[in-house]
Design a protein that fits this description.
InterPro entries: ATXR2-like, SET_dom, SET_dom_sf, Znf_MYND. Keywords: Metal-binding, Zinc, Zinc-finger. This is SET domain-containing protein. Among the domains are: about 160 residues, no CATH class; about 160 residues, no CATH class. It has 20 helices and 14 strands. The protein starts with 5 loop residues before the first helix and ends in a 6-residue tail after the last helix. It is of the alpha+beta class. The strands form 5 sheets. The protein has a 4-stranded mixed sheet with strand order 1-2-14-11. The longest helix is centred in the middle third of the chain and has 27 residues.
Amino acid sequence: METICPIDRKCASQISVLLHPSPPPLQVQEYFEELISSRQCRGIKVKQNGEFGKGVYADLDFKEDELILKDPMLVGIQHPSNKIDCLVCSFCFQFIGSIELQIGRKLYLQSLGLSASKVCDKEGISKDFCDSNSADEEDDCYVKECKRLRKCASSSPNGKVTLPKGVVQSLMNGELVLPHSEKFSLPPAISCPGGCGEAYYCSKTCAEADWESSHSLLCTGERSEALSREALSKFMQHADETNDIFLLAAKTISFTILRYRKLKAAHLKRQNKYTDPVELDCAELSLLLEAWKPVSIGYKRRWWECISLPDDVDRSDETAFRMEVRDLAFTSLQLLKAAIFDQECEPLFSLEIYGNIIGMFELNNLDLVVASPVEDYFLYIDDLPDPEKGEAEEVTQSFLDALGDGYSVCCQGTAFYPLQSCMNHSCCPNARAFKREEDKDGQATIIALRPISKGEEVTISYIEEDLPFEERQALLADYGFRCRCTKCLEEDTQLISKQEHIKKKLGFGEV
């Protein structure tokens, strides 16, 4: 039996307006011009394309490997499973703390045997651990222990080297400074202003920006503005156990609600009096549409309709699979509604809106990747000249052994980028998302693969472009289109010619 969401019926007209295919072209143009200006981008324009909707076009010539765009995300998340490996700013996603804290924290959490789903719940433990002192510690014990680490470290059952507890603690306390780590300084880790112990930031600016944009509604701390912190915890647990794409959807709804509240407060202030209730009702929808505008630009389809069919699901079971996905989204929505529901923004809590938000991420999201400074640190040590290298490795090698192959894990997540999401696909793209050494945060970085002329469309590949023609087309069908780039047209012609030749050879005549 199909799940029915009462809000879908109650708010059908408002939902229809919110999900209108696209705002008027002039409004879209003005929005993107303002967005490009705010990002200080040079040389690109977003234009309407009759066949493919929006597209990004070069407004000047770009050279090969030249930076085309750095695009801050609208919303993004670090994968919960990645939090055990990387401590990053919850807003801009650059690494924070210190090299010592990054290494010590990871080793400490691993020593607790935490699973990925428990990392967020245990995040605050590290501070308590850092503040404790062992009874047998001496002022210089950590330095002495580090010199003996390779001798006293033992191998654990899984093959990794384990370290004395006091050494890991000293890394997290800042009492042990690794050789040459000052060359890889990181911003200090600042706790969430709401007291949740789950979000950390590189600066007060990022902490305030995240609080004002979405986190104040999604914080589980004492200062949270959520309707129910208990319900919010249940929602987050459900997302961790099922699909963290629900966390992105929650951020989007929170982002829209908070924008709406700011817009309404400014509207009432301009009125300088109490607005007539009828006039206010009309204004509320208009304000909600304005708050929703950044989200309205993204291409959307219902999640359960556009999600790729897993390899282990038979085509005969596709309908049942898509209904299960729909029910999963509805369960998540009900948990979120109990946590942060806002009556004036009721249409946002409809299954139709929720499904389209998640579908937008399914079709438009980009992997969030930030390289680890810990990897850079160990590579630097490895490149030191002798005997300096040997002296440094007396201290660092045991930590590298304890970390194992996971020493170089980067920050990983997913995000929606307003300008990057407007870039159309090509199997022979002229640009790609690629981080350079100086790109240390979660912004999308788009680089030219070859020279791009002024007026030429900037394209990227949504898939692995080296796959065979038919595999590419099958993957792109999930995005709702058949690729007609020059590479596909050429390979399609070759495939048709080959099929015709085979049929003629077998005596079937003309096709």
